[in-house]
Every structure is written in structure tokens, then in C-alpha cells.
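User: Hey, quick favor. My workstation is busy. Could you predict this chain's structure for me?
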Amino acid sequence: MEPLLRGRFAPSPSGRMHLGNVFTALLAWLSVRSAGGTLVLRMEDLDPDRCREEYAQVLAEDLRWLGLDWDEGWQKGGPHGPYLQSERTERYAAAFRALEEQGLLYPCYCTRAERLAASAPHRSDGQVVYSGKCRHLTEEERARLAQTRCPAWRLIVPDQEISFTDGLQGLYRENLLRDCGDFILRRSDGVYAYQLAVVCDDGDMGVTQVVRGRDLLDSTPRQLWLYERLGLTPPAFFHVPLLCAPDGRRLSKRERDLDMGALRQRYTPEQLVGLLAFWAGQMDRPEPAAAAELAPCFDWGKVPREDIAVGELPSVEKAAKPLFRERPHGGRGSFSCEKVTPSTMRSVISDAHVAGNDGFSFDSCGCGRRNSARLFFGEGFSTA
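Assistant: No problem, here it is.
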């Protein structure tokens, strides 16, 4: 018997969620719910300068508004808490010490300017690869630098290729030394780095599936190396496409017109979920749909691999008159459609009531596939 799938959504409460965050949250939720698994909500609030509890409160309320619930985690508790990273620093310190005992850590005194210097090694995508300058410092050199600088701490990586098969992006491989370099595990201000925290958290919480943006795809090999060094079991990874502006820029929390505050003013929960499900390949058109209606038919094989340019947000059909075919029945109309979600049908029924058309029956087989409805209206009904 296969173990129960355990997924997670782990946002950073540094501001209101934007459209791209919600897209990832929806896919993580659908993947878990379609498998009858458990979803964990964890707040990644490592950065004390940017993360605030009030942002976490709003984030959780936005998830509930969307119909994306969770089974364990922040505000609910569970056996693997705490679920705030800011309350898990002792765990990160223990992992840090374990790596230090393996002789895998060293202090780095390089300034940001030194790390970003033109002479530093760069990857093909422009990212800087740490040169390893401080790895070979003598004890005397470290003592002299420590008088004026607080060091960050880096993990020594081997000249080794790490490969894995992503559930969406396929085979990915990276040479840790050439493509990544020794990476930071603790910043100079004492804050533990994301790479260490996320491995400890997912490992300790028994997470078996991680759904996140494809911008983190190249972080996975170094995390897999950490899983191995710490004796933890890695999850399966699904790196989903980013939502981008037409010029290719990925969406960020700075795009205030695309954050949940603005989106909630423009859309109903079903309209927003339907739009995102359409982009995720789960619906043929952007029409209203509740997340629970989509879960039974969720299919990773339909999710696109490449980033999605959103441009001007399209409107979502509320009334579905163009989706229906009229079949007159002696003064009453019988209407049927395919691939129309129950949420859309409820919208049409609501519109019919407003127009003074009474009496209907509604039948649906769920998840936007071959839904049908018969609406029995009075003489005054018109499809015009």
C-alpha cells in the first residue's frame, strides 16, 4: 500500500499573495486533494525584516476565500510543529552543527560587491557562482578578517553531478561545484538560509510532494545534497510554470494590481479559480469553478511546462448563454452544455431567477467534464 501523499504550501508572509503565488497554491492543493492526501500550511517567515504576522493572517484568510483549505499546519497545529520557521531556529541550529561536525562548513567574509565582481564565475543564465575564495583561507587570515566583519557560513559542495526527475519538467541535472558553488547556510546576521530551513522542514514534516515555481528548479540539486548529508528522505518535486508579464518579467508582490487585494475586488473566488485552472490546462475556457469541483479530475499531464504570459487579465464568463443550445419543448426551454462547471451553472440559474424565470432542476457529474443541466423556464424566458 502506497503511503498517503503529504503536500505542502509554504508561502513567505512578506506581503499580499500575488497571482503567481495563488497559481502555485491552487496546483499544490489540487494535487493533494485529487490523491486524497494531507496538505500542510507552513509559513516561511525566516526574514525578520520583511515577514510579519499580520501578513500571515491575511494570507490564510485569502486561501480560505479561495476555497483552499489545509489539514495541518499554521493555525491548525499538528504533530510536526511548529509551523512558523521563525519558531524552528533550534532545529536549524542542530542541522548546522551536524554539518559542521562533518567538516562541511566554513566562514565566508566576502562582501556582496566582491561576490558580484565581474571577475567572479557566472552561469549561462547570468547567476554568480561563488568562487570558493574563503574556503582556502588560513586561520590567521580568518582571524584578521573576523576583526572587522561578521562572516556568513557556506557549505562545501563536491565536484559532483546531481540529477533528478521532476514530475513536470522532467530530467534535470547540475554539477554542484561548477553550476552552484559553495552556498550560504547562515547569513552574516545569524539568519539561517532558505536552503537549510526548507530541507529541515520538509524532511521533519514528512512531506512527500513539493509543488513550487520553476524558478526554484536549480535549487533542488543543492537541497538533495543537503537531504543526503542530514539523513533525510527527499520528496518528489513538481516545478510549475511562472506567471509572467508580456515582457517576460515574472510577477512579484510589487505588482500591486495583481495581488489578492485587487483580485478580490475584481473576481469572485470561483471566477479567479476558474481562470487559474484554465491557465493550468484543467479547463477548456476561463469560466467560474470551485476548487473542490476541479480536484477529482486534476491531471498533471495537462499542466504546461513553460512560463505563462498573462498580460491584461481576461474577464471570466459569468453568464453562460453562449455555451448553451436551446431545445424548445412546447413553451419551455431545455438547455444543455458540455464542459461547463457547476459554478457556471449556478451563475446561469441565478441569472434566470433574477429575470423572473422559475422552476429548474440541476444535475452535474462534476469537475467541469460533460456537465449538463436542464432549465425549465416560463413563457417569458429568452436567450437573446
